[in-house]
């Protein structure tokens, strides 16, 4: 995966985020347990309280912890420790930041695609969606079909800026998809069925030229993909 880092150095806030994420995932910070104070975490990781506070805010945004006024921060959800079978600890915050960007960017692309597509782009979208459904139903990773679907959405905008940015993100997107699919193989089939439904909703909205619905469906899909990647298997639907 390509990392967007300045001079190869990672932000200290990212490091604290990744380390606390890992400690929650491996059970050292158990579900419902109170985290050490900001001061204690700062000492442990050699970081200032503002840096720790930033990392904790991101963990709250990801639904892993919650703050209780006057009491501190508590673990609310344990992410799947299997994630570290496929990525290094230091990659987690990069993956999250990519998802953050994709939510807004690809939602915008889907909305524009709904108004701009022509027959050739719709044919490409439908072919990629069909290949994705076939692959997931057959228990395959189907990363190529999934990446092709997202590229087709960008091309359907008929806007060179959306197309070029989507291409520049391709390696990062594929990395996240590979991770998500490998984790999905360890989980119930309902996970793959949900992914199929989300892509179908995006396709239907674009086909119907419903810009608002297409944008919302894409944003929802990427938010859900981000959540699915890091939630524990115990949170899977039956």
From TrEMBL:
This is FCD domain-containing protein. The keyword DNA-binding applies. Keywords: DNA-binding, Transcription, Transcription regulation. The keyword DNA-binding applies. Residues 10-78 form the HTH gntR-type domain.
């Amino acid at each position: 995966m390509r990392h967007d880092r300045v001079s190869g150095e990672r932000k200290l806030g990212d490091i604290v985020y990744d380390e606390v994420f890992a400690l929650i995932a491996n059970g050292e910070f158990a579900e419902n347990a109170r985290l050490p104070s900001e001061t204690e975490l700062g000492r442990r990781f050699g970081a200032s309280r503002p840096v720790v506070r930033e990392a904790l805010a991101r963990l709250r945004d990801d639904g892993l912890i919650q703050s209780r006024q006057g009491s501190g921060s508590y673990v609310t959800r344990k992410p799947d420790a299997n994630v570290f079978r496929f990525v290094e600890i230091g990659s987690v915050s990069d993956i999250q930041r990519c998802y953050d960007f994709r939510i807004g960017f690809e939602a915008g692309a889907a909305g524009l695609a709904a108004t701009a597509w022509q027959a050739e782009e719709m044919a490409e979208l439908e072919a990629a969606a069909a290949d994705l459904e076939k692959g997931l139903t057959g228990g395959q990773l189907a990363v190529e079909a999934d990446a092709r679907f997202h590229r087709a959405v960008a091309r359907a905008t008929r806007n060179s800026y959306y197309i070029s940015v989507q291409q520049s993100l391709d390696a990062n997107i594929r990395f996240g998809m590979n991770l998500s699919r490998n984790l999905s193989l360890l989980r119930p089939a309902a996970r793959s069925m949900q992914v199929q439904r989300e892509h179908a909703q995006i396709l239907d909205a674009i086909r119907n030229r419903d810009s608002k619905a297409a944008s919302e469906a894409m944003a929802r899909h990427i938010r859900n993909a981000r959540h699915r990647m890091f939630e524990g298997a115990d949170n899977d639907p039956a």
